[in-house]
Structure formats: structure tokens, C-alpha cells
Design brief:
Elements (H helix, E strand, L loop, with lengths): L1 E5 L4 H10 L4 E6 L5 E2 L5 H11 L2 E6 L14 H22 L3 E10 L12 H17 L8 E7 L6 H4 L11 H13 L6 E4 L1
Parallel strand pairs: 1-2, 1-4, 2-3, 4-5, 5-6, 6-7
Helix pairs in contact: 1-6, 2-3, 3-4
């Protein structure tokens, strides 16, 4: 399969790319480097990426930013980071990518454990993740040409504990390589509308 991985240079995206590269043609997309550059907060950038890449069998998004901080500091402007990136960015990858994904292809988006297991400071990210999950469930029954859509909800990654550890007290992190297997399940399997939670 020809698989587009958006966010391919991040911690999770790199693991997903490594998981799939031995069996598939993986096209890397990110803001800074890779086979193609994309800013998922920009509709024009997403359109340009798809035009450059052409027809593909699967799209994986392992990108999406969000503000982390207490509710008392969550301003509309801070919240907009998650809305524009983690939420609208991922949804726009689907809306703008439909004509590029082959019959029986798939989309796999990324949500996160905190939409079900809240943490202090994670409100904005949890909000976006929950909305993405709802979009996946609803879109699954309407996607044309037997195209499937799922989302992966990983626990905090071992490799990210230096940055996010203070937010995830008491959580048992998972290796990025283990989380990447859920993306393989989504791409190579037959299910749709699912949330694959990686504990």
C-alpha cells in the first residue's frame, strides 16, 4: 500500500513510519521536513500536499498540537491551538483527502487517553480528542467507496515523559513502537468507526 503519514517526524509519527515501512510505501509529511511539507492548520497547505502526493491507499495523522495548562489559564486564544490543529486539522485531512484515497482505503486519526481519563491541564487536548472521536464514528457510516476511518487513542508515550511526565502522574507510559501497532491494525484491518486505545 501507499501510505501517507502526516506528522511523520514526531515521536509517534516516527514510530508509525518505522512500523509500516518494511511492508508498504510510506510517504512522510510534516511541517519542516520529509517527502512533502504540510501545515495541517492551513487548508491550502493540505490541498497542496494532496496534489503533490496524488492517489494513495491510506492516510495516517500523527500530528496535532494543543495547549496544556490549568483551566484558569485556558483562554479562547490558547484553546484555539487545539481547535485549529488537533481538531480541524485532522478533520480537514479527511474532508480534503477523500478524492485522493483509493477504494477500500482508510484514514487513521489520533486522539488520546485523556479524553477518557482526564488530567489536570489537559482540557483543551481532551476536548479536541473527543470531538475527533465523534467525527470518526459519524463519518464511518457515510464514507464512500468502502473507505474506512478509525482513531488511535494512545496513553502517554515513554519517549514523551520528559516533556509531559508532570501532567501524567500515576500513568504507566507505553512505548511509541507499541502504539504504532494500533495504526497498523487500522490500516491493514477491516474495521471502521473504531477507537483503538493503547494502554
Amino acid at each position: 500500500m501507499k501510505i501517507l503519514v502526516v506528522g511523520a517526524n514526531g515521536t509517534l509519527g516516527s514510530a508509525v513510519r518505522n512500523e509500516l515501512a518494511s511492508d508498504h510505501e510510506v510517504i512522510s509529511a510534516s511541517r519542516s521536513e520529509g517527502d512533502v511539507k504540510v501545515d495541517i492548520t492551513s487548508v491550502e497547505s493540505i490541498k497542496a500536499m494532496y496534489q503533490k502526493v496524488g492517489k494513495i491507499d491510506a492516510v495516517i495523522c500523527a500530528a496535532g498540537n494543543a495547549y496544556f495548562g490549568p483551566l484558569s489559564e485556558l483562554t479562547p486564544e490558547n484553546n484555539e491551538v487545539a481547535v485549529q490543529s488537533k481538531l480541524k486539522g485532522q478533520i480537514n485531512l479527511v474532508l480534503l483527502g477523500l478524492d485522493y484515497v483509493n477504494d477500500r482505503g482508510s484514514f487513521t486519526l489520533t486522539t488520546g487517553i485523556i479524553m477518557d481519563d482526564p488530567i489536570i491541564g489537559g482540557i483543551s487536548s481532551a476536548m479536541a480528542g473527543g470531538a475527533v472521536r465523534a467525527f470518526v464514528q459519524a463519518a464511518a457510516i457515510e464514507l464512500p467507496r468502502n473507505i474506512r476511518i478509525n482513531n488511535v487513542s494512545p496513553n502517554v508515550l515513554e519517549e514523551s515523559m520528559d516533556s509531559y511526565g508532570p501532567f501524567f502522574r500515576g500513568f504507566e507510559p507505553v512505548p511509541a513502537a507499541r502504539a504504532a501497532k494500533a495504526f497498523r491494525k487500522s490500516v491493514e484491518g477491516a474495521q471502521t468507526g473504531q477507537t483503538y486505545t493503547v494502554y
